Amino acid sequence: MNTRHHEERLTDIARLIRYYILKATTHAGSGHPTSSLSATELMTALVFGGIFRYDPNNPDHPNNDRIIFSKGHASPLYYAIWAAAGRLSEEDILTYRQFGSSLEGHPTPAFRYVDAATGSLGQGLSIGVGMAINAKYLDKLPYRTYVLLGDSEMAEGSQWEAIQIAAHYKLDNLIGILDVNRLGQRGETMYGHDLEAYGKRIRSFGWKTLLVDGHSISEVRAALMEIDERSDRPIMIIAKTIKGKGVSFVEDQNGFHGKALSEEDLDKALKALGNVDTSLRGEIKAPEDIRPPSMESGSAGRIDYTGEESVPTRNAYGNALNRIYARFPRIVSIDGEVSNSTRAAYFKKEHSERFFEMYIAEQNMAGVALGLSCRGKIPFASSFAAFLSRACDQIRMSQYSDADIKFVGSHGGVSIGQDGPSQMGLEDLAFFRTLFGSIVLYPCDAVSTERLVEEAAAYRGIAYIRTTRMATPILYDADESFPIGGSKVLKQSDSDAATVIAAGVTVHEALEAWQTLQESGVSIRVIDLYSVKPVDVDTLKRAAAETDHLITVEDHSAQGGLADAVREALTLEAVRLHALAVRKKPKSGKPRELLEFEEISGKAIVEKVKELVDG
Amino acid sequence: MNTRHHEERLTDIARLIRYYILKATTHAGSGHPTSSLSATELMTALVFGGIFRYDPNNPDHPNNDRIIFSKGHASPLYYAIWAAAGRLSEEDILTYRQFGSSLEGHPTPAFRYVDAATGSLGQGLSIGVGMAINAKYLDKLPYRTYVLLGDSEMAEGSQWEAIQIAAHYKLDNLIGILDVNRLGQRGETMYGHDLEAYGKRIRSFGWKTLLVDGHSISEVRAALMEIDERSDRPIMIIAKTIKGKGVSFVEDQNGFHGKALSEEDLDKALKALGNVDTSLRGEIKAPEDIRPPSMESGSAGRIDYTGEESVPTRNAYGNALNRIYARFPRIVSIDGEVSNSTRAAYFKKEHSERFFEMYIAEQNMAGVALGLSCRGKIPFASSFAAFLSRACDQIRMSQYSDADIKFVGSHGGVSIGQDGPSQMGLEDLAFFRTLFGSIVLYPCDAVSTERLVEEAAAYRGIAYIRTTRMATPILYDADESFPIGGSKVLKQSDSDAATVIAAGVTVHEALEAWQTLQESGVSIRVIDLYSVKPVDVDTLKRAAAETDHLITVEDHSAQGGLADAVREALTLEAVRLHALAVRKKPKSGKPRELLEFEEISGKAIVEKVKELVDG
């Protein structure tokens, strides 16, 4: 087929795609048709123009090119593409946004050709960075990652994090396609149709840019074909487009964002589209059938802290990555410029090819983790617990992608000391508890940390591990097991006056309190609730039944953490619970001073127990 | 004093400042001296070189220039500056990082010359944007805002959000001073000492840049004095510096980030510094004594929804801003490109000079809110509840600045419908509950929304208001009051079988359930828990005492929201609580379908009550 004939065919396919976009959204009564119409030629040229390489019969083929719709609200376009490819019928398309349909309002992996859920703007490029890093440095495959971007979402700083990192890692296998349709949700964007405004900014960060008429299939194809040269630079195709293109009465007009056409207007629009050949099908070029080298997995090494008394759990994290890597060769470690603090540096030292510095850009780090997860890796993404909160929206979104990501937050709590509150994670347990299917782990010693890092790696889903800055005594034998959802009863007797439930740093405070109280003839039960989610309901119920008072003590906000988790577990048990937690705005000071100030120290526990037992 | 003499004096002051930096950190045994030393000439030239204008006797003077240390870990430098200004003694300086000292590890407003707490990198420029917007567009004063930036933190996307917005708003009264010392925490930054790498990027975004030798006081002064021309462009002074400058054995070397010198090394360093005249004092130029026009406050208008049956609470939010503005003329509305959805657009229409579009850049929006709050405004920052999670780190940090900010998250819950989970706020109540002194409000109708927006404006601190997308029936009379920490008992009798505690959209589900149950002869108590934090403990206790079953129902994650808040309030009451919440990963669908799917509908409540009453 000659080029002109080919491009006429692509034009017909684009018409068919517009047909599907309009029908889907009008039938749903909602959606973003104008945002989908502006990118129609871009995607048509890419997917059906012989550039995109994908085997629809094998969505998981490791060498498939990837597409991410960072502008997730253009989902009607994405589904229309697959209908034009013959993978969805018109009937399927008309289930758009219906309850139970895989064609959701914004793309989710419910639809087999979606890798990662999008819809919260400004996140797709980071996901693409993760997939491109995987291709270039891990799987070492030639597949490309294409990210469809909207212009409004370029205001999101996360995009510029991705842009910087992509250039730094020379990701010439990452292609952004920027749909500059001028109009945001409530008006014109900052730069309107000034393509060069985007061009000069993106070029200044080291990308190659190509400016095109986004509705000229031949220009778009030509730009995409220019990408064949390897240049060590990521590529941004910057396309001038018209929002609502193809429906003249909404083209380039404000006020039509997120509005489906009425039935009447749909009729008008379809008539104006002209002849739509619904039997038309686009061809997608197949990928090269190359696969990455298979990874043999072996066994994890043995835990050995012989001769050591106190070790920071953050050190144990770094040690654990090295120890378990043979068992989980899909592990990748990424960190936000603090690997010497989080101890991800231990792993970087032994397996530098499996470690990627993410610099001070946590949002991008979370997106990269998702991209790596989509490509079958097990990312361990670490920073200070406090700074993971920079990525809450990305982490929130990753729960809708069936992501398999392990987040590790070091420097939990006030007990970090003199650096003060800006560095203290105090809300992290609360946030990670809210995520569907997440597990939240807060080990108190090196041995349990090592075991739980291994459990987290084996767990399929989002895991959060909180580590501690200071050294804490080793409590457990190297061969003890720490199942998710379990706990450890460290002290118990037949006459426990109260139960103290702690995790992480406060376990040691509780043990100190136990000692002090023993000397007064008072026994307490001490539970190490290392699994904050899910919690060990049975052990907690037993403690509630067998002891008169329950006390939680946590180096965390009073809301959302241990106390809330225990109350949730015992919600049908009608128990009283006394919660010691960080209730006062913390400040600089020595760790011990701060634990006392916040009344979560051994001393505070003793006082609370005495108050309850005596009163 | 001639220039050369003046600059020699500044050199002596810089020496004194180095003396304080080294002594403070060694005495504390921790801190970031090398990061402070690299910016010493920069700050000396600025503060004492006749450029910075500030009255130390009046830190709140409205026309003072402002300084923000975005690289908050250079706090030793900040305190040393004020010691050199005669506002701290050496004895004060030696309390650095001690518990109870106002000189914390990272700056907080505990120290009178700090406006906003910093220390989580990449946030200072946004705070500066807020202060500069205030100067240029609100107070209309000539003061300037200077932000000291580190090079590593330029990887943070939030900085690029600020850079874009600053250029867009022509903030030529905002001066960034970028300390390019080449070394991050664990190694070299992406661009090392390549000043032009920063220069071209920042210029591409529309700033003016000046490249200087950061240790040449004369070059730095000359650059700062060039700023006198008004250019409609923000200015970035990009300075080549040496990390650890002034202590030869650590200068420009990796491995010394965040390390205080030992006593022995301190001796060496101080000797090498040479003669330090600790009696030396730097002069700070006074500001022009101009004040903004005083704002007269009047009364809020009357609430009037006569003739309306159902109104979305998000509409009531927009109406409320207009209604209460006369009472709170310090209100400023900022929104993240969704004002037509959040209805901040209603206020923009009436008071366009008090509204600032923040585009799709929520991190920057939260920082701007903090900057505005520091300058005495009452910012209402709105977006979808889900997208406020983009700014969790900034919001977390604002709690350490005694910030007075109102965050408004629309589109809470699964009940937004077909757009699907990317747009659904499901974790927002949990996050805002964790903040010190925060109030969390979730009104169910237009009247209560109007009242609570007013209460939030009057409250001094961080407030979060969650609004709903769909229209909901008006339940309350226009003259009812809704105190913070209160609740409304909508239905009660002497024979309530159970209490249903709801908020927002689920209040209406609960009322529907009440009706259905009445028809079966079962009475339930219905509580509108519009104040999720603090909660109405007395009403909840009474309900626990007087009814056999407590049920919470929320369009929110099962963790961290209503259920946890009620359990926290009743933690000493030994009650059972049944929690209906969003427990299944949501999807697209009609609002009604999703409420049923998540079992938080009227029907689900009826079933739960029957199960408890019968079983």
Throw out a few tags for this protein.
homodimer; alpha/beta; 7-stranded mixed β-sheet; 23 helices; 19 strands; elongated
Description:
2 copies of one chain form a homodimer. The first copy, chain A, has 615 residues and is an alpha/beta fold. Chain A contains 23 helices and 19 strands. In chain A, the strands form 4 sheets. Chain A has a 7-stranded mixed beta sheet, sandwiched between helices. In chain A, helix 1 (3-28) packs across helix 3 (40-48), helix 1 crosses helix 4 (75-84) and helix 6 (124-138) packs across helix 14 (362-374). The first copy, chain A, is elongated. At the A-B interface, helix 7, helix 8, helix 12, helix 14 and helix 16 of A face helix 7, helix 8, helix 12, helix 14 and helix 16 of B.
Name the quaternary structure: homodimer
Helix content of chain A: 25-40%
Distance N to C terminus of chain A: 90 Å
Largest interface: A-B, 111 and 111 residues
| Overall shape of chain A | elongated
Read across the widest sheet of chain A, the strand sequence of neighbours is 8-7-9-10-12-11-17
Number of strands of chain A: 19
Largest sheet of chain A: 7 strands, mixed
How many helical stretches of chain A? 23
Query: Structural class of the secondary elements of chain A?
Result: alpha/beta
- Return the average pLDDT of chain A rounded to an integer: 96
**What portion of the residues of chain A fall into strands of 2 or more residues?**
15-25%
Which residues of chain A sit in consecutive blocks of at least 5 with pLDDT less than 50? none
Radius of gyration from the alpha-carbon trace of chain A, in angstroms: 27 Å
